[in-house]
Every structure is written in structure tokens, then in C-alpha cells.
Amino acid sequence: MTEEVLCNEKLLYTKKEAAKALNVSERTVDRFINKGRLSRISGYG
Fold it and tell me: Coiled-coil intervals in this record (predicted)?
């Protein structure tokens, strides 16, 4: 599997923004978080 890096200046995304940036559903973002493929930061903002 090829790894891709999303490069831009934004460091944190909401679940909705992450889903849009990755072109997946918010549920898929949840699955990525649960599998450890994405990190979740609580209490920001």
C-alpha cells in the first residue's frame, strides 16, 4: 500500500473537515480513528 501525505498548513481538522479532505464519510473517519490510522485530539477549541 502506498502512503500519501496531505500537505497544507492546517494542523487540526474536525471530523467533517477530515472526511471532506480524505473524500470519505464521517463514519469512515471514525473507523480510521478506532483502528489507530488517525489520531483524535479531545477538548480542542
Answer: none
Is pLDDT at 2 greater than 60 in this prediction?
no
pLDDT tens-digit map of 21-36: 999 999 999 999 999 9
The predicted model scores a pTM of 0.71
Return the residue matching grid coordinates 483502528.
35
Q: Which of 30, 45, 39, 37 is nearest to 4 (CA)?
A: 37
The domain segmentation of the chain, as residue ranges, is 12-36
The separation between CA 42 and the C-alpha centre of its own chain, rounded to angstroms, equals: 13
Tally of helices (H runs) and strands (E runs) in the chain: 2, 0
